[in-house]
Amino acid sequence: MAIYESGEMYLETIHVLEKKTGKVRSIDISEHMGYSKPSVSRAVGLLKKDDYIQVDKDGYITLTDAGRALAEKIYERHTVLSQMLIRLGVSEETAMEDACRLEHAISDESFEAIKRHIEAGQPK
To answer: Is there a single domain that holds both residue 13 and residue 41?
Structure first.
């Protein structure tokens, strides 16, 4: 099933918040992303319907295996792309913003090539 960029952003946010605090609720996502509660509620419903997340009786959100795999993929892209842009001399703020846009548009092939290029330049 196809997931849209906004869905990827929500999954990445859940992943990041989960790493920071261990527990995630819709309000945490709303505050972190600066989105309205109804917008987050709608997205959570769609992600739940598509089996990317589970929501328990207390409203805590966890990623399913499929959701975690996708969230980790997007998070890795964001991290690698932002680090690459910073190394190229882009300010951290701009690099983070640009990486956020690029992470959703870049093909797997191009991203893997960038990763290989970066790793080849790293001292062993």
So the answer is: yes
Tokens of 99: 């990486």
Here the tokens at position 102 are 């690029």
* Dist CA 51 CA 2 (whole Å): 12
Q: Give pLDDT tens digits for 15-59.
A: 999 999 999 999 999 999 999 999 999 999 999 999 999 999 999
Q: Write out the residue range of the structural domain in which residue 103 sits.
A: 70-120
CATH code at 91? 1.10.60.10
pTM: 0.85
Which tens digit of pLDDT belongs to each residue from 51-85? 999 999 999 999 999 999 999 999 999 999 999 99
Number of helices and strands in the chain (H, E): 6, 2
Same domain (yes/no): 59, 75: no
Distance CA 82, CA 10 (A): 19
How far apart CA 8 and CA 16 sit, in angstroms, is 12
